[in-house]
Amino acid sequence: MSVRRREGRAARVAAAVVAFGLAAVGAVAGAAPASADEAPQHQGGAAATLGGLTTFDRAVLHLDGQDHELPAGLFEMTVDGGGTLKTYCVDIHNPTQEKARYLETSWDQTSLGVNKDAGRIRWILQHSYPQVDDLVGLAKKAGSGPLTRETAAAGTQVAIWRYSDGAQVEALDPAAEKLADWLERKAGSAPEPRASLSLDPVAVSGRAGSRIGPVTVRTDADRVTVTPPADAATSGVRVTDAAGRPVDAAVDGSRLFFDVPRKAADGSAALTVQATTSVPVGRAFAGVTRSQTQILAGSSRSTVSATAGATWAGKGAVPALSARRNCAEGGVDLTVDNRGDAAFGFALMGVRYTVEAGRTRTLTIPVAEDQAYDFTVQGPGARGKTFKGVFDCETTGSTVVAAGQAGSQPSPLSAGGTSAGSAAGGGGVDLAETGASNATPMIATVAFVFLAAGGAAVFFLRRKQDLPAGE
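Above: the chain's sequence. Below: its structure in token form.
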């Protein structure tokens, strides 16, 4: 196991011994409470709701000396704004949640990011049902005998589980089992597909009276629409190109800027881009709450979107704040990019840190596997930014929850079981932010108080892109 993997596991173990009442307080001198803008960790793409397991047959999982019969096949999701997705499971030991919300996600924010066989899973998706809908031809290649949609889906799911979870699993139908064996044996490696639509970076900052950015559009769509900030008419903030020309549409590689009036009060704004396109096969989908991770097997033309935010101030520190799961390190990366003309200071576990003007620092906050996290960092002028989600990076497990009935109208149950309600995992990193300061335009103190029973927590700090602006 690599040093990075060992450190990631150490971080998860450390976080696990922290009592679920783990708290963090962000405070600065002053009496006024700060408001917080919630920022779900979504780098862009499709957002969808799980509809259920729709095309499936049966399989048997051999685990801990016992056999567990379970359904295996395709799920269906309904995309926000229009569209349908078909997905397979890559997380056999975790349950799905009824009507769970899912976000298109990069592999490195799921178990696929640390799975050396992730490319083989994408190869299977590209060479089996439903991407290959000629079942007669597929059966002939696999030497399986006649296949139905249900047995083809089951055989494909079984082959995926062998690589996603290292599971000892077999399809009950003989033809489906032969298909699974053929796919497992033939699987090559295919690279991770890029997002259907994303913006890079998702947060920028700068001075009022300037064009803040750039934010670069990444997409396979022919064209995306650009929606300016909601209060653009009153704030005067425009979305432009590098030359200052207003932009209402963009293509792959377009560079967008926030044009902020010189007299604008310290504040923030967001732009949104949207398109209709097919989501690439092999994109991961992670639950907003704890729910079984999925991988895309097929997509209709669907609505995809991405959002980026800008923060500005007349003087002082002006940090852009963003966060994303880091499965390799076992935590959530909080990135502070200070584009102001003064240092941005904050405290962490009683130690004060500084992000100098023009520099970037990333802090890795350890979070236990399957635990919810929720933390806020104060932004400019009594504003704040909240990051929340569920840390779901592993597929290992030693139990299987009953999958329930698999009738002609099955409920949205996972192969590993189901659980009702909003299973956020209960507890985890719970960071509350209080207070505001009139003394400086933007100072944040983030203090983590660890409440452990018979154990201590380790906090890993690392630097990323710690370079002067312009390098």
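The longest strand covers residues 47-63.
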